[in-house]
Amino acid sequence: MTRLDELLLRLVPSAWRDDVRRDLAEQCPERGAGLWMAIRVLEIGTRLRAARLADALHTPPRRQWRSPMNSFARDLAFAVRSLLRQPAFAVTVIATLAIGIGANSAIYSMFNWILFRPIPGVQRPEQLVTIRFQTPKSSGRFFVQYLDYAELRDRITSLSGLAASLPLTLYAASDPRDDGRRLEGELVTTNYFRVLGISPALGREFAQADERPIDDVPPAIISHAFWKRTFNADPAVLGKSLSLDGHSFTVVGVAPQGFQGRSLVTATDVWVPVGAQVILMPHYGRTALTARGPSLFGDAIGRLNPGVDLAAAQAEATSVADASTEFSSRGPGKPKSSIRPVLYAGLGHDTFARDRMTTMFKLLMGAVGLVLLLACANAGNLLLARTSSRRREIAVRQAIGASRFRVVRQQFAEGLVLALAGGAAGLALAQLLTTFFDGMRILDYLPAVSGVTVDLRVALFTLGASLVTAVLFATAPAIAGTRVDLLPALKDGLTVTRVGRPVLRTGLVLLQITLSLVLLVGAGLFIRTLHNLRTVDLGMRIDGLSSFQLDPSRLGHSPERSQQILRDVLDRMVATPGIDSAALAWSTPLGNMRAEMSFTRPEAPKTAFDAAATGVSPGYFSTMGIPLVAGRDFTSTEFGRLNTASGVIILNQALARQIFPDGGAVGSRLKLDYPEKMEVEVVGVVGDVRGRRIAADPEPFAYEPIGQRWPMSWGSVIVRSSLPAADTAASARAIARQVDPRFTPPLVESFALMLDRALAEQRLFARLSAAFGGIALFLAGMGIYAMMAGSVAERRREFGIRLALGATAASMQRQVLRRSIILGVIGITAGLIASVAIRRFIEARLFGVTAIDPVTLASASAVIVALCMIASVVPALRAARVDPVRSLRVD
Amino acid sequence: MGDRQLLGEVEQLVLLAILRIGDGAYAVPIRDQLLRHAGVTLSRGTIYVTLDRLERKGYVKSWFDDPTPEPGGKARRCFRLERDGMMALRAAQRMVDRLRAGTTLEDRGGKG
What's the pTM? Predict the structure, then answer.
């Protein structure tokens, strides 16, 4: 055979190739062999192919049903047809599964949105690292100066780039005195977009020159969403002017669609270069980018060079900081601090937030997983009931030769169809449910969630859940359902005596009762926790209380002048009609600012007492509704009196008890060791106030008069008023504008709102666990009803005989109800045991209630008993109404 | 018979040839048989196409005999008539017989 022949032989279907080769070799004439062979190979090959093609086209389709896959496809088609014949059953099962799967997908979607998904639009996110600045001793994070960042950026070779950004809230308005819209802004180094792998959709990136202080109109890059929202996606936006905080910026670029900055939870609207710091943050001075000075960046984003791992980059970063003479020092010649760069893989949340959210995720997924399990049990029970009512059909099919495997496969196909339909419906439901998450907060200090959508990961998750569900609930009924004794099934398929597998069905109902009790107990505990936290004595009266922050220093005022402006605002606020009282404070209990002080008693200088601290104006305690327990409030002469030698201080009771266990705090003198060394006199003791972590015990707290150690250049104005919130806010805006027209409108927030935010996590748990509990009750109720109704239907003959023998209708009802309640009691017992067993998972999240709270456990049990009774009322009535004559006559 | 396809003339011939040869039928002897006993010359391609189709219909079955005793010799594929094939063949014969019953194929001395 020539090579041509071999080539032509490829035409022949492989099954024939060897035969054709051999046959032709046998018959080949000696002369002209080459051509003879080639022609015949060509002829045989093309004719075989053509014939196969023609046959395939003309074969009636039913001949294709021969492969196992095809016959399973036929099973599926048959399943769809038979389910369509019983739409009520199909809809019930699909809805049950959709609820379970939908709830799971919704919770997963939410956490996927805020925790797991990659930062949108960022290229090769696996190469990115976040550098945070920490000391070996503290778990806290520190800010570093621009020069520290620049030194790292220039020295590190394991990173292809290092960028830094500072989140800023900016006001977009042509006139800053307008209400203005708050924008999420980022002050970024000019390589920010390059490091993240982003090229602008329109226009340009920032230029190298933007890294220096900019005195004329600085550039700005806007997000795609902001471009569409504010500029109607006008391509001529480049070069247009944009007012931010009252300063003009020029739009030089539009970020690509989908890119929203470096955060999963905050969508940045506008990026400005770090050179704009001199304009937007004048209080940082003109040399913040060129000399040692105030700290600017809380972290930095780096991109690892290919082949470099995190550990190597970490080692290099540490050695760069160690080798530097002035990393994180206050200035040339000043000592270095112990702050060092610490690298974390990826962008996104800091480890603290991530850990907290991961714990929440696990707990909530556990709970919603129970809901799915419950839904599966319910669906399984419905399917099992259907299987036993189809005993006759199954018996007939087996009698005429269907193998048991064949019948099981048919049942499995039905389960699969139902699960996939349930999965699809669940996905749609999840999309609907995610809209309820809009505006919810997961953690108190993260922005509210918005725009959660079900994405590909969720779709895959849902598909997985559907398939697991199919296996879980289709297999058992399918296997159990085919263990049919053919003869009796064929003989009296209509009345059906006690059907096999009551154990399995009862077990599934018991499982449902157990799970719903566990979920109800959880709901009860979380709702009580939220209630306890809402009603706990905060140590202050928050109704009618609101506050807003003002930062005159950001407008370029000196600290002394800033303090004077704040005082001016306070005076005007107090003079406003409808304002009951007002005060100034550096921080508020529910806010997120925190400072610390450390004291010693002169007679025992070895023992230091640490306390949280803040500066307040006279009248702060009365405005806040914090009781003065002993001594006096600060006086107006102490307010703003700079005195670093000796000062006055007010302690809360917790701190007073610590330092002066025997009392006598007022009038005593203390030494302040940190942050300044000075002597202070305790002039008063006030009540304890709960902080942002409401559930935590009030911490030791010290108050000093504003301006005692240094002028306060920014702070919060606290207002107590019976006016509507909008009026208070309007007054605050008006006053701020009168004092300095350049003030951006302050955001006035009520303490009630801040409390709400502080309880975000607890509220999320209360709401979701209540929803889970509700779903569980609904599903378990359905399950109990279905089982009781089924069992009454099956026992109709028995009831008929009993009635015929003289039993009363009431006794029939009692019998049905008793059975249901016995089930309930067994389920409750198991549920209580389970609740106790899993209490350690939730104990840490409870407040004012223990995980085995008798009231909650008893109420949940009572609800379940009531559910059992309600769900079996109709079946009980039906049992009593059995007509003995008809039920006996059936055979 | 139902929707079962009718057996084509060539298919009948090939099936009969296989029946005659018994075990060990393959393309070359089948073609020889047809030439020798039926006086029909079928192209090789036709033989292969027909065998291929008959096998797909389940009328014949192939198996591999022992490899020919030569270096690298491969097993030859031989064909055997299946029960279905036999039934189809019988049905086809019966159909022809029934149709022919009462008719005569002798020349009646008409024109020609």
Answer: 0.74
